[in-house]
Amino acid sequence: MRRSTELRLPRTLDAARRARRFTAEVCAKWRVPGLAPDAAVIVTELVENTLRHTGAAPRLELELHRDNLHGNELTVKVTDDDPREAVIRESGYPPGLGLLLVAQTSEQWGCRREPTGGKTVWATVR
Protein backbone atom coordinates (compact mmCIF):
# COMPACT_ATOMS: atom_id res chain seq x y z
CA MET A 1 0.00 0.00 0.00
CA ARG A 2 1.19 3.50 -0.78
CA ARG A 3 0.14 6.84 0.71
CA SER A 4 1.41 10.34 0.04
CA THR A 5 0.75 13.91 1.07
CA GLU A 6 2.46 17.22 0.56
CA LEU A 7 2.82 20.65 2.11
CA ARG A 8 3.97 23.84 0.42
CA LEU A 9 6.03 25.88 2.83
CA PRO A 10 6.61 29.62 2.87
CA ARG A 11 10.09 31.14 2.95
CA THR A 12 9.80 32.05 6.61
CA LEU A 13 11.88 31.41 9.72
CA ASP A 14 9.33 28.91 11.03
CA ALA A 15 9.15 26.78 7.86
CA ALA A 16 11.26 23.96 9.34
CA ARG A 17 9.14 23.94 12.51
CA ARG A 18 5.97 23.73 10.41
CA ALA A 19 7.48 20.89 8.40
CA ARG A 20 8.42 18.95 11.56
CA ARG A 21 4.93 19.37 13.01
CA PHE A 22 3.33 18.28 9.72
CA THR A 23 5.60 15.23 9.61
CA ALA A 24 4.76 14.22 13.18
CA GLU A 25 1.02 14.63 12.52
CA VAL A 26 1.16 12.60 9.31
CA CYS A 27 3.20 9.81 10.93
CA ALA A 28 0.66 9.63 13.76
CA LYS A 29 -2.27 9.61 11.31
CA TRP A 30 -0.64 6.89 9.21
CA ARG A 31 0.18 4.91 12.38
CA VAL A 32 3.94 4.94 11.95
CA PRO A 33 4.97 7.18 14.88
CA GLY A 34 8.27 5.32 15.21
CA LEU A 35 9.41 6.83 11.91
CA ALA A 36 8.69 10.40 13.04
CA PRO A 37 11.93 11.18 14.94
CA ASP A 38 14.31 10.31 12.08
CA ALA A 39 11.93 11.85 9.54
CA ALA A 40 11.86 15.07 11.60
CA VAL A 41 15.67 15.32 11.51
CA ILE A 42 15.66 14.85 7.74
CA VAL A 43 12.78 17.26 7.14
CA THR A 44 14.49 19.93 9.22
CA GLU A 45 17.79 19.65 7.38
CA LEU A 46 16.27 19.54 3.88
CA VAL A 47 13.91 22.46 4.47
CA GLU A 48 16.63 24.55 6.09
CA ASN A 49 19.01 23.75 3.22
CA THR A 50 16.42 25.00 0.73
CA LEU A 51 15.95 28.20 2.69
CA ARG A 52 19.69 28.74 3.23
CA HIS A 53 21.01 27.88 -0.23
CA THR A 54 18.24 28.79 -2.68
CA GLY A 55 15.76 31.57 -3.31
CA ALA A 56 12.93 29.05 -3.55
CA ALA A 57 10.06 28.08 -1.29
CA PRO A 58 10.28 24.38 -0.35
CA ARG A 59 7.60 21.80 -1.09
CA LEU A 60 7.57 18.86 1.30
CA GLU A 61 6.19 15.50 0.26
CA LEU A 62 5.87 12.43 2.46
CA GLU A 63 5.30 9.03 0.91
CA LEU A 64 4.68 5.85 2.88
CA HIS A 65 5.16 2.36 1.45
CA ARG A 66 3.70 -0.40 3.61
CA ASP A 67 5.20 -3.80 3.00
CA ASN A 68 4.39 -6.76 5.25
CA LEU A 69 7.65 -8.46 4.29
CA HIS A 70 10.08 -5.53 4.62
CA GLY A 71 8.25 -3.18 6.98
CA ASN A 72 7.23 0.42 6.52
CA GLU A 73 9.35 2.86 4.55
CA LEU A 74 8.79 6.61 4.65
CA THR A 75 10.30 8.76 1.92
CA VAL A 76 10.79 12.43 2.66
CA LYS A 77 11.09 14.66 -0.41
CA VAL A 78 11.81 18.38 -0.52
CA THR A 79 11.50 20.06 -3.90
CA ASP A 80 12.63 23.55 -4.86
CA ASP A 81 13.08 25.58 -8.03
CA ASP A 82 16.87 25.79 -7.86
CA PRO A 83 18.66 23.54 -10.38
CA ARG A 84 21.89 23.20 -8.37
CA GLU A 85 22.42 19.66 -7.12
CA ALA A 86 22.51 19.07 -3.38
CA VAL A 87 25.88 17.61 -2.34
CA ILE A 88 27.58 16.79 0.93
CA ARG A 89 30.29 19.34 1.63
CA GLU A 90 33.70 18.03 2.49
CA SER A 91 34.49 20.74 5.03
CA GLY A 92 33.85 20.28 8.71
CA TYR A 93 32.32 23.74 8.98
CA PRO A 94 28.91 23.27 10.71
CA PRO A 95 26.71 24.88 8.02
CA GLY A 96 27.94 22.15 5.67
CA LEU A 97 26.90 19.22 7.85
CA GLY A 98 23.15 19.10 7.04
CA LEU A 99 23.30 16.56 4.22
CA LEU A 100 25.84 14.50 6.13
CA LEU A 101 23.28 14.27 8.94
CA VAL A 102 20.61 13.28 6.38
CA ALA A 103 22.91 10.57 5.00
CA GLN A 104 23.61 9.21 8.49
CA THR A 105 19.95 9.27 9.57
CA SER A 106 18.41 7.76 6.44
CA GLU A 107 18.53 4.35 4.79
CA GLN A 108 19.39 6.11 1.55
CA TRP A 109 19.15 9.58 0.07
CA GLY A 110 19.64 11.33 -3.23
CA CYS A 111 19.00 14.33 -5.40
CA ARG A 112 17.25 14.36 -8.77
CA ARG A 113 16.56 17.11 -11.25
CA GLU A 114 12.96 17.92 -12.04
CA PRO A 115 11.64 18.54 -15.57
CA THR A 116 10.60 22.01 -14.39
CA GLY A 117 14.25 22.92 -13.82
CA GLY A 118 14.42 22.49 -10.05
CA LYS A 119 15.43 19.53 -7.94
CA THR A 120 14.09 17.12 -5.37
CA VAL A 121 16.22 15.95 -2.49
CA TRP A 122 14.85 12.76 -0.93
CA ALA A 123 15.65 10.37 1.88
CA THR A 124 14.07 7.18 3.21
CA VAL A 125 13.66 5.92 6.76
CA ARG A 126 12.46 2.55 8.09
UniProtKB/TrEMBL annotation:
CDD domains: HATPase_RsbW-like (cd16936). InterPro entries: Anti-sigma-factor_SerPK, HATPase_C_sf, HATPase_dom. SUPFAM superfamilies: ATPase domain of HSP90 chaperone/DNA topoisomerase II/histidine kinase. Keywords: Kinase, Serine/threonine-protein kinase, Transferase. Gene3D superfamilies: Histidine kinase-like ATPase, C-terminal domain. Residues 10-123 form the Histidine kinase/HSP90-like ATPase domain. It comes from the Bacteria. This is Histidine kinase/HSP90-like ATPase domain-containing protein. It comes from Amycolatopsis deserti.
